[in-house]
Structures are given as structure tokens and as C-alpha cells.
Amino acid sequence: MSNYYSQYTEFTAVDEVQYLIRITDIHTCVTTDTLKMQVLKKPGYYLPTAFTPNGDGLNDLARPYLIRMNGLKRFAVYNRTGQLIYYTATEGQGWDGKYNGVDQGNGVYVWILEFYDQNNKLVTEKGTLTLIR
Fold first, then answer.
1. Count of beta carbons in the 10 Å neighbourhood of residue 133
2. Residue 77 falls within a domain, yes or no?
3. pTM over 0.85
4. Is residue 121 part of a domain?
5. I want to staple 88 with a disulfide (CB 3.0 to 4.6 A). Which of 21, 71, 84, 93 is the partner?
6. What is d(CA 2, CA 113) in angstroms, rounded to the nearest whole number?
């Protein structure tokens, strides 16, 4: 159970949790919805394997999520010719599917992620990301 004023909710032995959200305005109009959230328990990183940067507010950015790690060193994305098309050293930022303001096409892109683990050891991970328009 959680409430509006709590910043965090603790979960035990679950992979996901579903919230029932009920909003009432001063005129007693009621809106109800649900929100299902995945609970990330394992330290490390999470990065999507595909994203759809179409401006609908869903999966518009490809960004790494660091769980109980000590910080991001870099997140870089390369196109199929090996050209660097996105780079950040700021945690929470992500690639919007553009290079120099131009939408990049459907396809598979390569990423490199470097971050510091709980012992301040530099960890390097590599993978692919599919852009779907």
C-alpha cells in the first residue's frame, strides 16, 4: 500500500505491481485507471531492445536505467557503418532516434554502456537496439 505523500514503496517477492488510481475533483467527478509497474530487483542495468520514437509518449527514448549502481560514465549509440550518432554522460538522458535533428530510419543500432558498479569498478556492456518507426 502506498499513498500520494510517500516517495517510495517497498515490494517483496513480486515481479510487478498494479496500482488502482482514483482521482476526484472538487465537483465530485471521478476518474479511475490502473497502472502496472515492473519491479526491478536485480542490481545492474536495464536497457530496452527496441523503441518507437514517434512522439506518443510511449517508448520514445532509448536510455539505460542503472539500478543500485554508482553512476554512468557513457552511453553511446552507433549506426550500422560505425558512426557515433548519440552520446551522453548524463544519467537519465536517452537517444530520441535522431542524429543532428534528423530522424534515423528503422533498423538495428549498436550501443555501448559504461557505468560504475557498487564497488566503483568500471563495467562495460554492449548490445543492439532496434528503432521502429
1. 11
2. yes
3. no
4. yes
5. 93
6. 34
